[in-house]
């Protein structure tokens, strides 16, 4: 499937992307288990208006958002609550608008009708970084601040969580309302900065959650087609801990 970012194809190793630099990237690792359970890709479609490439596989539609480099999936159920196997998928014009369609193995054509309705909960955009290490010697690291940079794509609220020293629970968090994000967007970019309260750590991981909000004041419905923020940069201000031999015993310091 050809797209603005390159050519997508299903190989023996999974879904891959031949990008504009002619490099092959195995982008399908996050959905490898779904493909293994439901069977190979039977169809692919480019939904350029929402920056997505969609793949039919068994009873699932696997959706790759290529601007955010994120995967999610749809599962279509029949009236009895059973999964509907997909034979293929495509995008066709309906009243002049490109619309996503699924062809089931029973010969039915299913057409997407709109986005999420007013009663639906739109999933937050979330990403979590790997564990970041900076010190060559264990225990000699201090992280003072975390900064995020992104492009404003739609009204949203943002929460950032920090995890230290491989703990599953967050050690700090900070949130910004949609009004605060709007104020930054007026300047063209979204720039967030978090002061880390517990700075001494061996490793740090950052989780960023972006939730769409109403596009107009007092509007009850979120904009389910907006991307919120397209994150382009993550940086940390780091330094060394004060003193020497922070992890050494008394006898080893002599």
Explain what you see:
With 254 residues, this protein is mainly beta. The chain has helices spanning 32-38, 178-185, 250-253, and strands at residues 2-3, 6-11, 14-19, 24-25, 43-47, 52-57, 60-65, 70-75, 86-94, 97-104, 109-111, 125-128, 142-152, 156-164, 172-176, 190-195, 204-212, 229-239. The protein has a four-stranded antiparallel beta sheet with strand order 1-2-3-4, with no helix packed on it. It has a four-stranded antiparallel beta sheet with strand order 5-6-7-8. The protein has a four-stranded antiparallel beta sheet with strand order 12-17-14-15. The longest helix is centred in the C-terminal third of the chain and has 8 residues, at 178-185. The termini are far apart. The relative contact order is 0.14.
Quickly give the structural class. mainly beta
The major pleated sheet works out as: 4 strands, antiparallel
Element-by-element helix/strand order: EEEEHEEEEEEEEEEEHEEEH
Number of strands: 18
Classify the beta-strand content into a percent band.
35-45%
Counting structural domains, the number is 2
Whole-Å distance between the termini?
A: 65 Å
Could you say what the CATH topology of the largest domain is called?
Jelly Rolls
Which terms summarize this structure?
mainly beta; 18 strands; four-stranded antiparallel β-sheet; Jelly Rolls; 3 helices; 254 residues; 45% strand
